[in-house]
Specification:
The protein is of the alpha+beta class and 185 residues long. The protein has 3 helices and 12 strands.
Length: 185
C-alpha cells in the first residue's frame, strides 16, 4: 500500500493531488430523476473483475446487497449509475425498477476514455455528499485502485490487497483481480 498524497479536507473536499479540490470541470455523469446515467468505455467494459469481486462477496455474505454495472442510486431528484455498489441487505428499502434510494456502504467507479481520475474524484465528492462511506476508483491506465474515505485516501497497486472496511467484513480483494480482463503489462 502506498499512502495517498493527502487527506480529504472537511467536509467533502479533497486536498491531495489525487483528488484535488482544484478540479472544477469533468465529464461526470449526473442526471435528474427522469434520466439514466450512462458511461461506457473500452477500459470500463474490460474491467470485469469489479462485478465478479462484488458478486463473490455477496454470495459469501448474505447480509449484503450488490448492485452491478450501472448500479442506480436516486437521492432526491439526483440520480447516478455506478460501476458497482454494496448496501446492507437491511438498508435498501423499496427498490424501483432502476434505483436504490439509500446510500450504499461502498461505490466502485472505473476510469475510462471519457472519465479520468480527476472526473472520478468529482463523482466521489458527490457520493460522499450523499452519505456513501467508501469509494473505490479503479484505474486501468495505471492498474491502481484509489480507496477514498471521509478520513483520507490510499492508493493500491498490483500485488497488494485493498484494505478491509469494518462495515464490509471480508471484502479485501487483490488489486490484480480487478483487472483480470486487461492485457498483461
Amino acid at each position: 500500500m502506498r499512502a495517498g498524497t493527502g487527506l480529504f479536507g472537511p467536509p467533502f473536499t479533497f486536498t491531495s493531488s489525487s483528488c484535488s479540490s482544484s478540479v472544477v470541470a469533468s465529464t461526470a455523469t449526473t442526471c435528474d430523476a427522469t434520466g439514466v446515467a450512462q458511461v461506457a468505455s473500452e477500459s470500463n467494459e474490460n474491467v470485469s473483475g469489479v462485478p465478479v469481486t462484488a458478486g463473490v462477496f455477496s454470495d459469501e455474505h448474505a447480509g449484503f446487497f450488490v448492485g452491478g454495472d450501472k448500479a442506480g442510486m436516486l437521492f432526491g431528484r439526483e440520480a447516478r449509475g455506478a460501476k458497482g455498489a454494496v448496501w446492507r441487505r437491511s438498508d435498501p428499502g423499496p427498490i424501483d425498477r432502476r434505483y436504490v434510494r439509500v446510500p450504499p456502504l461502498l461505490v466502485v467507479e472505473v476510469e475510462g476514455r471519457e472519465e479520468g481520475e480527476a472526473a472520478l474524484c468529482v463523482k466521489a465528492r458527490w457520493y460522499f455528499a450523499h452519505g456513501v462511506g467508501v469509494v473505490w476508483l479503479v484505474l486501468p491506465s495505471t492498474r491502481d485502485v484509489l480507496v477514498l474515505r471521509h478520513g483520507g485516501e490510499t492508493r493500491h497497486a498490483v500485488g497488494e490487497r485493498l484494505p478491509e472496511d469494518p462495515e464490509l467484513p471480508g471484502l479485501a480483494p487483490a488489486v490484480e483481480g480487478l483487472f483480470r480482463q486487461l492485457a498483461p503489462r
